[in-house]
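#struct-help
A.M.: can someone run this one for me? Single chain, 278 residues.
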Amino acid sequence: MPNISELEPHKTDTEQRKESLEDLLGWFRLDNGKVKILEDKFVDKLKDLGFFRYLLGNDNFIWVRIIDNVIERVTKNQIIDAFEEYLQGIGVEHFKDKATTFEAVRRRIYRGLNTLFSDHLLGRMKSVKPIKLNRHDKNSAFFYFNNGYVEVTPEGFELKEYSQLDKMIWKDRILPRDFKKSGYSKSNFFRFIQNISGWRTRTNKDENEELKAEFKNRYVALKSILGYSMHDYFEGKLKAIIFTDSRISEIDEPNGRSGKTLLVRSIGKMLDAEGVNE
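D.P.: on it. Structure tokens below:
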């Protein structure tokens, strides 16, 4: 029989909670037949469910829920709903032949909503260890998807589960799609960057070899620009990236339709929204 501290905070369904009533409901006791809430144990239970306070500075804080290293900002009502879901998940059968009933405990929670879920009591939901946010470093970049995160290094890339993160991320940094591995050389985007750099159109046998090498170098440079734009790490001064047409007119001749806007929008599809107070 596992100890409650060994359970993941978000595992609240009946099948995963086979502990004794004392383990499950250690946050209350009976006093002359009445349900009495033990505030310190109640706060501990909320933390078991993944709820904590997150300091913003100057003693201001917000409430968050952490599941598998993913942080989400929550409201007081969401905390109450999650606790009620937890209580329902225990199951009425746990209260059979006990000195109290499920309904009695729930009624006691409802009567004490203003006290049990007050700012002062919820402010005690301090994390045992500091909440540190995951960031890119010199040799790694991270991209977050619905089905996990991708770590990119000089050796390649790998899709991993969020539970494998050493630190945490905000939920709104997760891109709203799954990551699917595919052969990049057959992708439309690969052909697109070849085309706009001129390399793909310069591969016929009659083309000057020196000129083909120049356009291949442009393709390699463009790949470096894409990597620099998506790598959230820098040392020293940041560099501005300016895309222009290869031929600039001196008489206001339009030279657009070369892929600049599409390229920038493509980069945007890989960049996440910044989290709260990162």
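A.M.: thanks! The longest helix spans residues 209-230.
D.P.: also worth noting: The chain has nine helices and nine strands.
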